[in-house]
Design brief:
One of its GO terms (biological process) is protein transport. It is found in: Cytoplasm. This protein is mainly beta. The protein folds into two domains: about 300 residues, YVTN repeat-like/Quinoprotein amine dehydrogenase (Methylamine Dehydrogenase, Chain H), CATH 2.130.10.10; about 55 residues, no CATH class. The chain has five helices and 28 strands. The strands form seven sheets. It has a four-stranded antiparallel beta sheet with strand order 1-28-27-26. Strands 2-3-4-5 form a four-stranded antiparallel beta sheet, with no helix packed on it.
């Protein structure tokens, strides 16, 4: 049974990015507030400002205004971009080197500070240093079976720790001192401060692309065996039931209460509250799916799109209208963390009342009595 949880809205059309140059492909994206950055296969970074517009009928559209683009001077693709807004810096991975550039003018920092020998990198969103003017960066090193932790300041970088792993790592997410790693044959949790590691479950990185994503404090989402989206805490346990994905998921994102996944044909939406698949959106040739501060963005090689969530109240009313009382109540309870307490209590009472009338009309008097009570 489907729910309309998201609408797919175009943000950057291919003409804005590449005009008639068909060889240009989107390699990576980063979004920070209204700033959208795109890295391409011909070593350019593009900076757009995204403006969200809501029509009187409530329809949302995005207008992207190009600010500037910058050539990095190499014949290599820009493979990853991460914004450190507190430092007004963009971290750019190209040709195994992370360069710091200014978020506004895309100029490299004058000191030339950089991190060399990075295969891929991620930021620690739950930093341990306590310094607001520094970001903690974790890289998978070109050195075999090596992870390195750095502190990155406005104009300098400093290595903090080098950790060796039992197998070659191919994906990493960080929370505090905990690294969640996809190795060649399994996922593990590793505390880089104590060196203690814990096996999670087996996984063959040769057959499928691993997914490791921090979804909250001390919790990660992983692409498990058999097409399962598995949740794991830093203690190596799962506090939620898995979601059933397709076998060939490329990327995953979180927009509470939904987990969104991308494969080569569809975007699928599962509820974290009851693990059910709620929505399927056809989407061909997608290769990026990421969430940025609650904004879920998908991209093909040629264009960027935003998944706009429909208001939870509207989704609950749609479920009640189709007499799906249980699902509506589960979603309403899950909405508690997204809605101010007083507003939630008023809304929840009204939903219980509506649900009660639906059950009453279906002659389910005991259930209706409980809801009215």
């Amino acid at each position: 049974m489907s729910v309309k949880a998201f609408k797919l809205v175009s943000a950057v059309e291919r003409e804005m990015l590449m005009g008639d140059k068909s060889y240009i492909n989107i390699e990576c994206i980063e979004c920070c507030g209204k700033n959208l950055y795109i890295g391409t296969n011909d070593c350019f970074i593009y900076h757009f400002l995204l403006d969200e517009k809501v029509s009187t009928a409530g329809k949302i559209t995005f207008a992207a205004t190009k600010q500037l683009h910058k050539y990095l001077g190499l014949k290599k693709p820009v493979s990853e971009l991460k914004a450190a807004s507190a430092l007004t810096r963009l971290l750019v991975l190209c040709d195994n080197t992370i360069t710091l550039v200014n978020m506004i003018n895309l100029e490299p920092v004058p000191t030339g500070a950089r991190i060399k020998g990075a295969v891929t990198f991620t930021l620690n969103e739950n930093p341990v240093s306590g310094d607001p003017f520094c970001v903690e960066v974790c890289i998978i090193s070109v050195k075999r079976r090596t992870i390195q932790m750095f502190m990155v300041f406005e104009d300098r970088v400093q290595i903090v720790k080098e950790v060796f792993t039992p197998e070659q790592p191919c994906a990493v997410a960080v929370d505090g001192y905990y690294l969640c790693l996809a190795l060649t044959t399994q996922y593990i949790i590793l505390n880089y401060n104590t060196g203690v590691s814990q096996d999670l479950f087996p996984y063959c990185s040769d057959e499928k692309r691993p997914i490791v994503k921090r979804i909250g404090r001390q919790e990660f989402l992983l692409a498990g065996p058999g097409g399962l989206g598995m949740f794991a805490t830093v203690d190596g346990i799962s506090q939620r039931a898995p979601v059933h994905w397709s076998e060939n998921v490329i990327g995953a994102a979180l927009c509470f209460p939904y987990v969104v996944a991308l494969d080569d044909e569809f975007i699928t939406v599962h509820s974290m509250l009851d693990q059910q698949q709620k929505q399927t959106l056809p989407f061909k040739e997608g290769h990026i799916l990421q969430d940025f501060e609650g904004k879920v963005i998908v991209a093909t090689n040629k264009g960027v799109y935003i998944l706009v969530p429909l208001p939870l109240e509207k989704q609950i009313q749609d479920l009640l209208a189709s007499h799906r009382v249980e699902e509506a109540l589960v979603l309403a309870k899950g909405a508690r963390r997204n809605i101010p307490k007083e507003k939630f209590q008023v809304m929840y009472k009204r939903i219980l009342q509506q649900a009660g009338f639906i059950q009453f009309a279906q002659l389910q008097f005991l259930e209706a009595k409980e809801l009215f009570r």
